[in-house]
Write a structure and sequence with these properties.
single chain; mainly alpha; 20 helices
């Protein structure tokens, strides 16, 4: 049950359960492989924890001893290559080898899908998602990802047909439906209203960002300011820091007096994420700094930072697909 939660890789209870399972059965290589995934994930988003890395490598070595060349060994090595090494091609090769040994292993196929998603939203990913849908016909997640993949790959006719062919409703089916409808009616305010209603009807971690962007697109900047306060007031009161989306909303709404005092803190928070080489592990950071430079009307610096973002992110389909690139431009 813990593994099925959306944020399993941030769930400390899941890590404890895996460690307990290994303690009870020191030969439980699938639990070891999942522990490798959990521990390696933290390297993916700039959390440099040598202790976690060492523990992941120890678990990986134990699998190599117990079951060399097995599905679990390839599965664990693929996770480590993907999250810790960020070698996506190697990770895909390893997980594909695991799939060949056990074609109906949905854990292996799930990993393959997220690696393919990062390399590119295309036919190989769709085939993996379709296979997952066949193996787990009651799962709504794969139906969502199939439709979402079609939209992000600009295959709008296929996405529209997929929506007609399913009775399933979720945040992403209705998000996709509203985008496809927008192509026909062209009314951005109607689209924003539909998106807000979808966010109220379905719970999704993506809904806040999409709703805010819709308010910006429709130039309802004061509503964008209020939306941020509604969502983040507690965090603002607790930390004294405002989210970047609120800073941009103030700027767009012409409320520079509210914004000025927060720019240094926002810039400091972003700059603190640089690694020992002075670069950002997450290309989004360049866009966040670009947004602040735009607020300060420094066109040259804004352009330079966006180009840095493009140079770092161009090989990563996920970052490109979900970026704020258009907003920054």
């Amino acid at each position: 049950e813990l593994a099925k939660q959306e944020w399993w890789y941030q769930n400390e209870d899941y890590r404890v359960a895996l460690e307990r399972a290994i303690e009870l059965d020191p030969t439980f290589t699938r639990a070891m492989a999942e522990l490798v995934a959990w521990l390696s994930f933290y390297n993916f988003f700039s959390t440099d924890d040598p202790e976690m890395t060492a523990q992941a490598e120890q678990a990986l070595e134990q699998i190599n001893i117990l079951a060399p060349g097995s599905v679990d060994q390839l599965y664990a090595q693929s996770y480590y290559s993907y999250y810790a090494l960020k070698d996506y091609e190697l990770a895909l090769e390893l997980v594909t080898n695991a799939e060949q040994l056990r074609p109906s292993d949905t854990d292996v196929l799930y990993l393959k899908s997220i690696i393919q998603r990062r390399i590119g939203f295309g036919e190989p990913l769709r085939q993996t998602l379709q296979k997952l849908s066949l193996l787990e016909p009651k799962s709504e997640e794969w139906k969502d990802w199939l439709i979402r993949n079609m939209v992000l790959n600009h295959e709008y006719d296929k996405a529209g047909q997929a929506l007609l062919d399913t009775n399933h409703q979720s945040y992403f089916t209705e998000w996709a439906r509203s985008l496809l409808d927008l192509r026909n009616h062209g009314d951005f305010r109607q689209w924003a209203t539909e998106l807000a209603a979808t966010g109220e009807a379905f719970t999704s971690r993506f809904s806040d960002g999409f709703t805010w962007e819709a308010l910006v697109v429709t130039r309802d900047f004061e509503a964008a300011v209020q939306f941020n306060f509604d969502q983040f007031q507690e965090d603002i009161d607790e930390t004294g820091r405002v989210p970047l989306s609120l800073a941009l909303s103030w700027w767009l709404a012409g409320q520079e007096s509210e914004l000025t005092e927060h720019i240094p803190g926002l810039r400091s928070l972003i700059e603190d994420q640089r690694n020992i080489n002075g670069r950002f592990d997450d290309p989004f950071s360049y866009l966040e700094l670009a947004a602040l430079s735009a607020v300060e009307e420094d066109k040259e610096e804004t352009t330079r930072l966006i180009r840095q973002y493009v140079g770092r992110a161009k090989a990563d389909a996920v970052i490109f697909a979900f970026s704020w690139e258009y907003s920054c431009r």
